[in-house]
Amino acid sequence: MGIKSFQGQQIKQSRKINKNITVGDIMSRDLVTFSPEDSIHQVMSYFIKYKISGGPIVNKTGRLVGIISEADCMREISDSRYFNMPILDKSVKSFMSFPVETIQASTNIFDAASKFFKTSKRRFPVMDKGRLVGQISRKDIVICALKMKSQTWR
């Protein structure tokens, strides 16, 4: 008498290869944006209120004109201490970083990870056809990598 397998009939599993995951798939879409005319005080209070560390600056037509981060605010805090003056109510355009380095929504996450690795940036505004559509951070890439299955690594 032969040994029987208790595994039962095996079902053939089709190997679906997931499409490449792009920046547009994992980016943050609900952004806190700022105007060049906003005060630096207002920006810092929004950082605290929304628990963010930076955000894009858009003009009245919605075009991306700069980016502001906690590091930019630290520069103002440091300068105010150096000159022994309180933080002035200056507008964001005095502190924002520009030109802004962006990333396309169609970029795959591995290329995005490489771009983060090569720079000291913590976030990139995401563009699609010349429009600001979101923002991606280093943390978004790490979270996505943890969720990926082995067959999606390409």
Quick take:
By secondary structure, the chain is of the alpha+beta class. The chain has one domain: CBS-domain. It has 5 helices and 5 strands, in the order H-H-E-E-H-E-H-E-E-H.
Record keyword descriptors for this entry.
154 residues; alpha+beta; CBS-domain; 3-stranded mixed sheet; two-stranded antiparallel sheet
Molecular structure report:
By secondary structure, this protein is of the alpha+beta class. Helix content is 31%, strand content 17%. The chain has a single domain (23-152), classed as CBS-domain (Roll), CATH 3.10.580. It has a three-stranded mixed beta sheet with strand order 3-4-5. It has a two-stranded antiparallel sheet with strand order 1-2. The longest helix has 13 residues, at 70-82. It starts with 22 loop residues before the first helix and ends in a 7-residue tail after the last helix.
